[in-house]
Amino acid sequence: MLFCKPASAGRRLQPRQACIYLLCLLTLTFTVAAAHADQASLTLANALSRTIKENPDLRVFDLRLEGLEGRRISVDQAPAYEVGFEAENVLGSGDLQGVDAAEYTLSLSSVIELGGKRHSRTDAVNARYDVLEAERKATALELLGQVTQRYIATLSLQEKLDLSTQEVSLSEFTLSTLRRRAKQGAAPEADVLRAKAALAQSRLSHDALKTEYQKRKMALASLWGDTRVDFQRLQGDLFRFEPGESFEVLYEQASESPMIQVFASERRMRDAEIQLAKSQSQSDIRWQLGARRSEDSGDTALVAGVSVPLFSGHRNRGQRQSAMAARDAVEFRQKSALLQLHALLFEAYHTRQQNIDAAERLRTTVLPDLTRALDLTRKSYARGRYSYVEWTAAQRELLSAREALVEAATTALLNQALIEQLTAQSVTQQ
């Protein structure tokens, strides 16, 4: 780790050694260090795969789809047959006392469905099945986007933690240098105390970052249903930016994403409900066929009958109107969703590009200049031309620029993840 071995008291730090220390400070990488080589690491691809397989919310969709399969079987059944038995002229008074004058009727009845009701019921369930499948895809896409965003945020905090470790090491090195110079009479004791306080503060900040890092890892693991963290570090390059498509292409892709396709599936479902309501307007025919026996004469006769409801079409008019209104509302909800999608995608697209530009400028211009400035300040401090305050100020400026680079890269990747979620494109940072 950087600056883990401060120079011993009485040993003068050579300029070459100091340069090595500074160069090490400026090197930030997401490659797992040798000290962590034997520890478990997590990739984004692995996090996404585990979430798809084990997330409880997605498992619920399997049960809902299974329930619709059962409903599909039920609505595809023809009307049931009914067996009836009637006894007339039984246990009356006068000539109808007892059962001598009884008449018994045994009948079989059912309903003849008209208007394609059975087919309409099946279509409505099938359409609902398609809607649920579309909702499942949209939910999975949203969940994968959430995983990606949490992964990037945790990766960013991991980088900040590495930077904080380097800051602590630099503070230790600075304090060691000042103690040596104070013994030589080249630095006041007040500078030593200030360096000591700065080291304590950097350690406090480092401990706070470690705690937050553990919390972020736990929040990430919870997305695939784990209550413990079985990985130590994340793998990934926070500073790798993939080339993106134009906004027009991205919006076209977003318009065909599962989040929008849900509306198309819902529209088909509403059409099926309208057809079902229309089929219900067609009156069914109830028929009955049976045999009647008279105990008085011992004769048997055939009994048959049909019945048809009157004015059933008017009774179902409200249901048809409700189904048509729900269908028309889907179109306007889709238009509203597309407008919101356009605004969200536009903001994410330009925010991503802005932060990519900022990160590149920090990396190619600001950091090299501050690195050179810190080296010159260090040399001037060694010759007594600059004070301790000026030296530490140069250190803080460089560290702040490094933190700004991490923030810009994080914001760019978070917006990239949002774009990929909105467009249903595969995640590039794996």
How would you portray this structure in words?
- The structure is a single chain.
- α4 (117-183) packs antiparallel against α10 (388-423) and α7 runs antiparallel to α9 (317-382).
- The protein is elongated and about 135 Å long.
- The strands form two sheets. Strands 2-3-5-6 form a four-stranded antiparallel beta sheet, with no helix packed on it. A two-stranded parallel ribbon has the order 1-4.
- The protein has ten helices and six strands.
- It has one domain: Up-down Bundle (Outer membrane efflux proteins (OEP)), CATH 1.20.1600.
- With 430 residues, the protein is an alpha+beta fold.
- The two termini are 26 Å apart.
Could you outline the blueprint of secondary structure elements for this entry?
Elements: H1 15-26, E1 41-42, H2 44-54, H3 56-75, E2 82-88, E3 103-112, H4 117-183, H5 189-221, E4 233-234, H6 247-255, H7 258-281, E5 285-294, E6 300-307, H8 312-315, H9 317-382, H10 388-423
Parallel strand pairs: 1-4
Antiparallel strand pairs: 2-3, 3-5, 5-6
What key phrases describe this protein's structure?
430 residues, alpha+beta, Outer membrane efflux proteins (OEP), two-stranded parallel sheet, 6 strands, 66% helix, 9% strand, elongated, disordered N terminus
Q: Average pLDDT, to the nearest integer?
A: 80
Strand-residue proportion: 5-15%
Number of structural units classed as domains: 1
Secondary-structure element series: HEHHEEHHEHHEEHHH
How many strand units? 6
Measure the end-to-end span. Answer: 26 Å
| CATH-defined fold name | Outer membrane efflux proteins (OEP)
Structural class designation: alpha+beta
Q: Radius of gyration in whole Å, from Cα? A: 39 Å
Rough shape? elongated
Task: Bin the helical content.
Answer: 55-70%
CATH architecture: Up-down Bundle
Instruction: Figure out the total of helices.
Output: 10
Q: What's the CATH superfamily, by name? A: Outer membrane efflux proteins (OEP)
